[in-house]
Amino acid sequence: MPLFPIHRIRALLLLAAAAAACLYAGKEFRKMNAPDTILPGQGVSRIRALKDYFPNLEGTRSDSAVYFLESGRPGPTVLVLGGTHPNEPAGFLAAVALVESLRVKAGRLIVVPQACQSGFTCTDPLEGYPQSYSLRSRSRLRTFRFGSRAANPVEDWPDPIIYRHFPSGQQLSGNETRNLNRAYPGKSDGTTTEKTAFAIMKLIRDEKVNLAFDLHEAAPEIPIINAIVTHEKGRELAAGALLGLELENLPYALELSPPNFHGLSHREWGDGTPAIPFLLETTNPVQGRLRGRTGASLAVDGQDRQYRLAQESGRMRITYDAGGEPLARRVGRHLRAIQAVLETYNELHPEGRVELEGIPSYEEIIRNGVGSLLQ
Amino acid sequence: MLHWIYTAMAAWIAWLLLEELFEEKSWRIQVSLVLILIPLVLRILQIK
Questions:
Q1: What phi and psi values does residue A213 have, to the nearest 5 degrees?
Q2: Minimum distance, in Å, between the CA of residue B13 and any CA atom of chain A
Q3: Per-residue pLDDT tens listing for chain B (48 residues)
Q4: Residues paired with residue A213 on neighbouring β-strands, in sequence order
Q5: How far is CA A242 from CA A71, A229, A337, A340, B5, in A?
Q6: Which of A174, A241, A254, B32 has its CA 20 to 30 A from that of B38?
């Protein structure tokens, strides 16, 4: 038998091809570790990080920047969290817009644009998601990562078959282990995601946050779309905001946080801290099961033929405009809803107001695009 | 701990695949073996 029979030479050649594929794929995947550029505006007074609240996050993929916009005048402390689910770009971009454009005239705002920083380093398998999308801002072309719904699986692999929430013991599908919005109140010696949730809870307590917003998106066929989900203690504020939004022709649904559904921001922030929590949802065709070709343009323009046909047929209950669901509309909705809740808060608490400046109106955002909010 | 046990298992399976790759005579099965190898290598290197 020859030392190098043909099947072994073929094996070597195939191994070389596999090594080339690994090298190329590895390079592509590692590109997602490069951080997004966020340009703090004039309103940002200081920048901290989640590791300042929980040092165990130092040096991990889950540490994330915390931006402070302080007026120096008394008023409530408001927290805005974007990027809890990095495949929901409107939540992330609305938070970035606040960091880059907002000025606070009374009270203070704390913004974490990438709450689940680890989820920005990968995409969901089998979804065909783009790795990034680009927008023309006021000065340049900006590119941002389009991440995964959950934290990077590399860190806490393997997922358990069943995720057991701490401390309630509630059982969910194993992949929810890496979902930040199922991990609150978190655990100091838990998984990476539980540690991130623990750091955010500590931030809320240490900074004495009064009002907290968690910005999300959902597939057009999900019933909780264009909705404000809140804890019992936020009912009055959310109802007041809804009335104002209705008058502006921006209909929203008010959803109360189910008391026995644990791990979610609107439940655990409300139960475990003095903050009044609000979770905002817009519609995002990229996440939908019905969508057709998936790419960066769908993330930005929100135009999908399959959803348009479904909407025109009238046979599906979906939240989708025939002209598409562009990022400008979704980011504009988030920003307008935050302002509406704060306006209601100011009416009810004239002694301690929060005043914001520098956010264009909803109509201006639609007209000028989401890039007009970014430097 | 479980993470490193699974990583070691992935490395062991990758080694078995390599052995099989050099013994296998059918080119179709050899191609299948290297296709399985790629995600294992990326996971062992903690890239994906």
A1: -115, 135
A2: 16
A3: 899 999 999 999 999 999 999 999 999 999 999 999 999 999 999 998
A4: A80, A278
A5: 27, 11, 8, 8, 51
A6: A174
| Residues in contact with B30: Cβ distance below 8 Å, sequence separation at least 6, in sequence order | A7, A10, A11, A14, B21, B24
User: Is the predicted pLDDT of residue A138 greater than 90, yes or no?
Assistant: yes
- Chain A: give the shortest CA distance to residue B48, in Å: 6
Q: State the CATH architecture for A34-373.
A: 3-Layer(aba) Sandwich (3.40)
Q: Give the torsion through C-alpha atoms of A30, A32, A33, A34, to 10 deg.
A: 110
Residue A239 contacts by C-beta under 8 Å, 6 or more apart in sequence? A254
Question: Are A8 and B22 inside 8 Å of each other by CB?
Answer: yes
Please tell me the distance from the alpha carbon of residue A213 to that of residue A341, in angstroms, as a whole number: 10
* CB pair distance less than 8 Å for A25 and B48: yes
- Chain A partners of B29 at a C-beta cutoff of 8 Å? none
Residues of B in Cβ contact (< 8 Å) with A190: none
CA pair distance A33, A247, nearest whole angstrom? 43
| ipTM for the complex shown | 0.95
Kindly report, residue by residue over A5-64, the tens digit of the pLDDT: 999 999 999 999 999 999 999 999 999 999 999 999 999 999 999 999 999 999 999 999
Lowest mean pLDDT among A253-262, A265-274, A309-318, B20-29: A309-318
Q: Do B30 and A14 touch (CB under 8 A)?
A: yes
Distance from CA of B7 to the nearest CA of A (A): 9
Nearest CA in chain A to B7: A157
Q: What is the pLDDT of residues A280-299, one digit of tens each?
A: 999 999 999 999 999 999 99
Assign residue A279 a region: left if phi > 0, alpha if psi is -120 to 50, beta otherwise? Answer: beta
Interface test with B, best of A1, A12, A13, A14 (most B CBs within 10 A): A14
Q: What are the extents of the domains in chain A?
A: 1-31, 34-373
Given an 8 Å threshold on Cβ–Cβ distance, is A15 in contact with B31?
no
| Mutation target among A9, A10, A12 for the B interface, most CBs of B within 10 A | A10
